[in-house]
Design brief:
This protein is α+β, with helices and mostly antiparallel strands. It is built from 19 helices and 23 strands. β15 and β16 form a beta hairpin. One of its GO terms (biological process) is tRNA N2-guanine methylation. This is tRNA (guanine(26)-N(2))-dimethyltransferase.
């Protein structure tokens, strides 16, 4: 098994701890500090346990005590009574010199994080690092070590339970022993639901079907002791081996599965505080083979593939907790996956997390109903990283029918966010208490923009005007009646045109235009204006381009922009043709004034 190593010596709770490291009281060294025993000399001089020999030479006890007090003990970062004193040992890589020479560099002073064992040089960076741990709920210490095989590992402590973690434990695709620190709140909620059940009856047979590191089942066994019988399973050999090592780390005896004589791997030093059964088995297999009072499902992703097996053998009034981490499908980011896994059509709403929780509850209820069982929802939580649903199982077809009656369809208005549950047995009825589906009363302010977008998408000016009432007046786009006569009064009523010969020709022209390639980008009429010339009004200029045989429309990107398939040369030629010199009006005025004077 992996040897249990202590945290770094720079992390202490009292100054006495540093003094004991330097043996200032003349005591004997413990076996865990043999690495630092070599700094003692026969002359009575002692070296600093946190500084290399070249930085602080061996000295007498009184001088070393002042050094520890004034440097290491006073320069620190603290978390919950644990002082992370500054360390000058070569724990970090050498800082290279300007020439890039690694040998000529110098060691950097640093701090060792009490939570994750990382080393950080700057004090302010360490404080920020600890704040991130606190925000994630990670405040218990962890420490690192090396296994006999030479592989590095980290030991993390959560709720009084120690677990070994491999370096790639945060990457599910690269590690079987996946561990997510952000799921601490999930593990605490699951533990609370189990603790409540133990008050009703015990002993309970509990299953952690996806053990990974075994942290969940070990917390159950360590804190609830004889009130439960814990079984931890996983399909991975690496996970099963790691779970057994973590059992020894917490003084918990391991029972093999299938049951039989215990081997040497199940023995722990001293008196075990609990017994855990560890098995290499697929979750669906063990759920079909044995009955349990409490079942926890926490696969990587969705748990829908294991619900039928879970409800098959769970005992009456037992509890099933389901953790779903497929937030992309639950939170409407992957609608096709949502339909595949949960049989639901959903859209992103302001209450999307509650929709996700209700969707998981509905899926659990359907799985229970297939086994002639009903459910009582005890807890439903939807947070950033997971959705947790805890239900009590009620046996019998009557209970199953009662649960099925609570499943309803939800109708949601995407305009005003109104929502309504359809009554059971109701036919397809999209009726909502709001009027958004029949009128555009809430969309009056953006109707011009919507019309412009539609015209721009088809590159036509037949129903186009600039978005915004002020822009409509300034640009002189013509009367509103002209647009209304084309049947485009309300953009939300399917944009139906009025009947007639004119509308029929419009439809034919639009169909032919849509088949053409959409003109990319647009030209600004002001950007290409001619100096000394008065440009035509924008509405007139669009008409001139259309008469020249080009596709043309306004664009919502720029109120003065023109989207057209004409080249820049053609665009400028039409603009030049219909522009009027600015001096024409001034000359005419001068002639009129001179005539009156003469008369």
């Amino acid at each position: 098994s992996f040897p249990q190593t202590e945290r770094h010596i720079s992390i202490q709770t009292k100054l006495k701890g540093l003094e004991m490291l330097a043996d200032l009281d003349g005591g004997e060294y413990s076996s865990s500090l043999n690495l630092f025993c070599s700094f003692m000399s026969l002359s009575g001089r002692k070296s600093c346990p946190l500084c290399p020999e070249e930085k602080f030479k061996a000295c007498y006890s009184h001088k070393l005590r002042r050094h520890l007090q004034n440097l290491h003990w006073k320069v620190y970062v603290e978390l919950q009574g644990q002082r992370m004193c500054i360390c000058h040992l070569p724990c970090r890589n050498l800082k290279p010199s300007l020439s890039g020479d690694q040998v000529s560099g110098r060691h950097v002073a640093h701090y060792h994080c009490v939570v994750c064992s990382v080393t950080i040089a700057r004090k302010t960076d360490m404080i920020s690092h600890l704040k991130r741990h606190i925000n994630k709920g990670e405040t218990e210490a962890s420490y690192s070590g090396t296994a006999p095989s030479g592989h590095a590992y980290e030991i993390m402590k959560e709720l009084g339970t120690n677990v070994q973690l491999l370096p790639n434990h945060t990457t599910p695709q690269k590690s079987d022993t996946y561990f997510n620190r952000k799921m601490k709140s999930n593990r605490q909620l699951v533990f609370c639901s189990l603790a409540v059940l133990t008050e009703e009856r015990n002993p309970l047979e509990c299953l952690d079907a996806f053990g990974a590191t075994g942290i969940m089942g070990l917390q159950w066994a360590k804190h609830l002791r004889n009130a439960i019988k814990v079984t931890i399973t996983d399909i991975s050999d690496t996970c099963v081996k790691m779970i057994k090592e973590n059992c020894k780390l917490n003084h918990i005896r391991v029972d093999g599965c299938p049951r039989g004589p215990r081997g040497p791997d199940s023995e722990v030093e001293g008196v075990p505080i609990a017994t855990v059964e560890v098995a290499k088995m697929d979750a669906n297999v063990i759920l079909h083979l044995r009955a349990f009072d409490y079942i926890h499902l926490d696969p990587y992703g969705t748990a829908v593939n294991y619900l039928d097996a879970a409800f098959r053998n769970v005992r009456n009034l037992g509890i099933i907790s389901v953790t779903s981490t497929d937030t992309s499908s639950l939170y409407a980011k992957s609608p096709n996956v949502t339909l595949r896994h949960y049989g639901c059509h959903i859209v992103r709403t302001e209450y999307y997390r509650e929709v996700a929780a209700r969707m998981v509850v509905a899926t659990v209820a359907r799985a229970a109903g297939r086994c002639n069982k009903g459910i009582e929802v005890l807890l439903a939580v939807a947070l950033e990283h997971f959705v947790l649903v805890v239900v009590r199982v009620l046996r019998g077809p009557t209970q199953a029918d009662e649960s099925a009656k609570k499943l309803r369809k939800l109708v949601h208005c995407q305009w005003c966010e109104e929502r309504l549950f359809l009554k059971q047995g109701n036919m397809v009825d999209d009726t909502l208490p709001c009027n958004c589906h029949g009128t555009s009363q809430y969309m009056d302010d953006i109707q011009p923009l919507v019309k412009t977008l539609i015209c721009e998408s088809e590159c036509t000016t037949l129903k186009s005007f600039v978005h915004g009432p002020s822009a409509l007046t300034n640009q002189e786009m013509g009367s509103q009646k002209t647009t209304d006569d084309l049947g485009w009064n309300d953009p939300l009523e399917s944009w139906k045109r009025k009947t007639g010969e004119e509308s029929g020709s419009v439809v034919k022209k639009l169909k032919s235009d849509v088949s053409l390639e959409h003109p990319p980008f647009y030209y600004s009429i002001h950007r290409h204006s001619i100096r000394g010339m008065n440009m035509p009004k924008l509405n007139k200029f669009l008409q001139y381009l259309t008469e020249a045989g080009f596709r043309v429309s306004r664009t919502h990107f720029d109120p003065t922009g023109v989207r057209t398939d004409a080249t820049l040369l053609k665009f400028k030629s039409v603009l030049t043709k219909y522009s009027v010199p600015t001096y024409t009006n001034a000359t005419a005025t001068q002639k009129s004034v001179s005539t009156e004077t003469t008369t």
